[in-house]
Design goal:
alpha/beta; globular; lyase; GDP-mannose 4,6-dehydratase activity
Length: about 70
């Protein structure tokens, strides 16, 4: 069983990635901001008590703005 850690798990991409990895048999852990405390609807149906074995980390917690991304691509 592979363990993954997703920052920004309550966002759209984090929720989709969580569901994808769970379907592949991964154990998924997620981090969320305190301001997301009441906005967990996208992942509430995915929660289970995890067990740690192998590790993968996905960092999706970056702040972003589409317009700024196009002006300063990196």
């Amino acid at each position: 069983n592979t363990f993954s850690l997703i920052t920004g798990v309550t966002g759209q991409d984090g929720a989709y990635l969580s569901e994808f990895l769970l379907k592949k048999g991964y154990t998924v852990h997620g981090l969320k901001r305190r301001s997301s405390l009441f906005n967990t609807d996208r992942i509430d149906h995915l929660y289970q008590d995890p067990h740690i074995e192998n590790h993968e980390i996905y960092n999706l917690a970056a702040m972003s703005h589409v317009h700024v991304s196009f002006e300063t691509p990196e």
